[in-house]
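Narrative summary of target 7.
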Amino acid sequence: MLLAGVSGCGKTLVAKSIASQWNMPLIKLSLGALKGRYVGESEGNLKQALELTKYIDGILLIDEVEKGTAGHGTDSTGVSGGMLSILLDHMNEQDNQFVVLTANNVAQIPSELLRSGRINERWFVDLPGRRSREEIIKIHLFADPRRVDPDYQDQLEPEILQLVDRTQGYSGAELEEIVLRGLRQAICQKRPRQPMLKDFIKDLPVPLKTFNNQQHQKVEEYKKYARLTSNDSD
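Modeled conformation, tokenized:
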């Protein structure tokens, strides 16, 4: 399975949810983190990591797969090509693992990794729509009772809806940071556990979608060829 989408939209969370639903362990590998400085070091790191996982029945999550396979045909060191070959061999040999790949930029993934038989399910994790933004904000506000006074939650509800309207185009990770910054701002204003809308929108950061719009449009192109994990929209 391939999970593609904008950075911070919850691709790893989707993989964790699959593992939870199937009651299976999740083994996470980041190809970028396995890259080494010397010739052969990256391939050795990947071989060792995959060897440790091969006897575990579960879900193997290869996070940000393009970081280890992009440019494999032109990499002067051969690192990306070597890692791709090792990964393909592992996927061909294993039948006790469900492999999930995540990617921020599908265009950088080699075609031999994307072909049918290796990737049978393609999903796109989009930016959260209005309903999803409301749920994400409430999770980060109310999941921990120490963050917002329970007696204050009803009073905060209208301001949450205003915040939802102001955060169109923000990813789940960006929404989490906005909530945490707002809670800290409320503490600074001597209103601990009683945040207000003005705390959340003070110095509201520019979303990645706007800041890097050209890259975002390239990522969005893949939506045409994949199934959507949610039908929520603005």
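Residues 172-188 form the longest helix (17 residues).
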